[in-house]
Write a structure and sequence with these properties.
CATH class: Alpha Beta
Shape: globular
Order of helices and strands: HHHEHEHEEHEHHEHEHHE
Structural class: alpha/beta
Helix content: 25-40%
CATH superfamily: Vaccinia Virus protein VP39
Oligomer: single chain
Number of domains: 1
CATH topology: Rossmann fold
Length: about 290
Amino acid sequence: MKFKPLNINIMNSSIEIKNLVREKYGTIANKSTEENQSGCCSSTGCCGDEVYNIMAEEYNKLEGYNPEADLGLGCGLPTEFAKIKEGDVVIDLGSGAGNDAFVARQIVGDAGKVIGVDFTEQMINKARANNEKLGFANVEFRLGDIESMPVSSNVADVVVSNCVLNLVPNKHLAFSEMFRVLKPGGHFSISDIVLTGELPPKLKEAAEMYVGCVSGAVLKKDYLSIIEEAGFKNIVIQKEKSISIPDSILLNYLKEEELQLLKQSGTSISSITVYAEKVAKDARNCCEPGSGCC
């Protein structure tokens, strides 16, 4: 699928971006994992100009892994690092076909609950169909926007997300929503794409690079600042790895000399898995409401 370049300066760019992502991931949802991985890039090679699953990691070592729910769209293994416990309530943001949700369900068991949130209807339908086959009564998938989640406040013990926040236009709002839905004392573990240095304008404005989780990424230091500004504490990068986009893809957008300048610039693309906590009230040494000391 080919897209027109993004016009990132227009007033409705947020709406345009969301429609673009919804269209692309709706198409992905209607294909099998094998079709998606044979039709574009994978972690081992590239045979096309799409980049959305070039960063995927292997899930098959994790208990609860369901191959039918793995569309190869992640850039980490957040559920492996998320410190999920039996009985926890877990929210998976950008839950796709249910991959991380089902791994989380294996950990929380019958006493816990997993809520997947995705704004692509085809993904929700696919995840629900997968869950119907598995028969989990305590896993549900909700159609909704991460910037305004269909979830009550102070519900989740843990939030996970895999290579999704870079696709959200308003990252400040998304992290504020995560803070809202987490219980005091709750935490998140998120895998996402970040940058060191600046991408060339041609890559920033390429729609394929946006839906491929590249041009929507922000500087790592800015990403961590957004998390802190949302109120989270004890921020830790649990894992970091370099992402290399093959020259064969980059040359679809850059001239040879532009590609060489990019390589010489020191700009790099990384996948990080980051952890942070919403501290409990007593951890902030805060008094009871109405006491006047807060």
